[in-house]
UniProtKB/TrEMBL annotation, chain A:
<dbReference type="Pfam" id="PF00550">
    <property type="entry name" value="PP-binding"/>
</dbReference>
<dbReference type="InterPro" id="IPR009081">
    <property type="entry name" value="PP-bd_ACP"/>
</dbReference>
<feature type="domain" description="Carrier">
    <location>
        <begin position="2"/>
        <end position="88"/>
    </location>
</feature>
<dbReference type="InterPro" id="IPR036736">
    <property type="entry name" value="ACP-like_sf"/>
</dbReference>
<keyword id="KW-0597">Phosphoprotein</keyword>
<protein>
    <submittedName>
        <fullName>Acyl carrier protein</fullName>
    </submittedName>
</protein>
<keyword id="KW-0596">Phosphopantetheine</keyword>
<dbReference type="InterPro" id="IPR006162">
    <property type="entry name" value="Ppantetheine_attach_site"/>
</dbReference>
TrEMBL record, chain B:
<dbReference type="InterPro" id="IPR013114">
    <property type="entry name" value="FabA_FabZ"/>
</dbReference>
<dbReference type="GO" id="GO:0016829">
    <property type="term" value="F:lyase activity"/>
</dbReference>
<dbReference type="InterPro" id="IPR029069">
    <property type="entry name" value="HotDog_dom_sf"/>
</dbReference>
<dbReference type="Pfam" id="PF07977">
    <property type="entry name" value="FabA"/>
</dbReference>
<protein>
    <submittedName>
        <fullName>3-hydroxyacyl-ACP dehydratase</fullName>
    </submittedName>
</protein>
<keyword id="KW-0456">Lyase</keyword>
């Protein structure tokens, strides 16, 4: 998780031009870091490439819009990193 | 090409949905109101319209891959380079390949050549979303007109 967080934080810092020290596991990507939807897709692309996964953004957006899942579950970085770890493990299990 | 209508692709030459690759042709018209301003007495296709041409080729590739379930909208242009002037009558060979197929977005690399010579290239990003009301049919009609799915390899 901490390795995942470090890599994700570095991606966010580079793509969204946010000082690395401002980014913590508790940061909410939108509310705390002010990342807009365009920048978030750029970040998703870098995450997809870096981890060899496909973040299911459409599914997540739908779940949040339908009120099934609070946005924090995806946008607070420690939660996002947990999901990335899950997707990486899922992919490894398939190989 | 009908520059002033943003109708850039004339004909799809090849489409490989599985490999994520498309090739198309576009002939620059001999006359267009665009050339009255760009530039007076010295007609050149503006770089933004070459970018649009690369974006439309990429867009048709994404439409075909998604079987018209989602509409791509251009949201980012990276590393765009315009290497040579393009004037009236030029036959443009447009190609685009899928770089990454994300969830709700896609990234392509596209290029245009004329007589085999590189004219421009760029990396393009698209947001892909369910078709807005009323856009599905016109896009299918346009795709049919340029032969998008004729002879698709996969």
């Amino acid at each position: 998780m901490s390795d995942t967080f470090d890599r994700v934080a570095t991606i966010i810092a580079d793509v969204a031009d946010i000082p690395r020290e401002k980014i913590t596991p508790e940061s909410h990507a939108i509310d705390d870091l002010g990342i807009d939807s365009l920048a978030f897709l750029d970040i998703a692309f870098e995450i997809d490439k870096t981890f060899g996964i496909k973040l299911p953004l459409e599914q997540w957006t739908q779940e949040v819009n339908e009120g099934k899942v609070p946005a924090e579950q995806y946008f607070v970085l420690k939660n996002l990193c947990e999901r990335i770890d899950g997707l990486v493990a899922e992919k490894a299990a398939k190989v | 090409m009908r520059l002033e209508y943003f109708d850039m692709i004339d004909r799809v030459v090849s489409l490989d949905r599985a490999a994520g690759r498309i090739e198309a042709l576009a002939t620059v018209p001999m006359a267009s109101p665009v050339f009255e301003g760009h530039f007076p007495g010295h007609p050149l296709v503006p770089g933004v319209l070459l970018t649009e041409t690369m974006a439309q080729a990429s867009g048709y590739l994404l439409l075909a891959r998604a079987s018209f379930s989602h509409m791509p909208f251009l949201m980012g242009v990276d590393k765009a380079r315009f290497r040579s002037f393009v004037g009236p009558g030029a036959v443009l060979e447009v190609e685009a390949s899928l770089e990454h197929d994300g969830s709700g977005y896609a990234v392509t690399k596209a290029a245009i050549r004329a007589e085999g010579k590189p004219l421009c290239n760029a990396e393009l990003r698209f947001k892909t979303m369910p078709f807005p009301d009323g856009l599905d049919a016109p896009m299918r009609e346009r795709a049919a007109r340029i032969g998008l799915l004729d002879g698709a390899a996969a």
